[in-house]
Amino acid sequence: METTHITIVKDLTYAEGPRWHEGRLWFVDFYSYRVLSVAEDGSDLRLEAEVPQQPSGLGWLPDGRLLVVSMRNGKVLRREADGTLWVHADVSSYITGHLNDMVAANLLRIDPDGAITVVADDLWFPNGAVITETGTLLVNETIGNRITAFDIADGGELVNRRVWASFGDLPEEKATGERMARLSVMPDGCALDAEGALWVADVLGKRLLRVREGGEILEEIDVGSNVFACALGGADGRTLFGCAAPDFHEEARKNAREGSIVAVRVKVPRAGVS
């Protein structure tokens, strides 16, 4: 398989939360506080929203309105047709740190009407999350050495919790730095393909991994930099986009424009629910 990557967007602070939606790649740039979208080849870069409290995860309501996480104040914002942003849900009382990829220290479900429910806890830094077409939620536990699966019940409850992929023992250390030293894979963002495999951005290994249920690594792509999130998209669903940067340290990323979006062609197209 050809794994040559190209850079389609550069001069970013720190890109995150990539999503393929309506023929474009959407993502956020943390420290310029922008939500952006771009064509598959990197052309036609558009400013979609500005989020002063730092944007993160993206999603869309059934009627097509954009949702974006406002990390530092624990809110999910909703973009109306005129471009204005309104608070869709305030989850600040449910979290102890920053709100991230539509999940936080607990896993929260936010319904289309803004109602908030805690649906899972005891997750080790829940991060990238995807929903399969059969209604299974996969969640990366970034400092847990694993990917966890839940079935989504008719009422939105999460049931049948299980380990979908394990990369080693669950570290016993509580401090993040000590846990990181014990990890084999540090799964951040992810993307599901049509064969049921998951592309994972491995922060620890500076690579994109294609993982099968059970934890077998099927493919590995080096994009020449640390990579923190990924998405499958493009006209045929076979372009794998990655959010690359030298590191994730806030002050360094704020003071440089070294982040980028890279793209590589893969064989198996995208799947799952955006």
From TrEMBL:
Keywords: Hydrolase. Signal peptide: none annotated. InterPro entries: 6-blade_b-propeller_TolB-like, SGL, SMP-30/CGR1_Lactonase. GO terms for molecular function: hydrolase activity. It holds the Pfam family SGL. Residues 104-241 form the SMP-30/Gluconolactonase/LRE-like region domain. This is SMP-30/Gluconolactonase/LRE-like region domain-containing protein. The lineage of its organism: Eukaryota, Fungi, Dikarya, Ascomycota, Pezizomycotina.
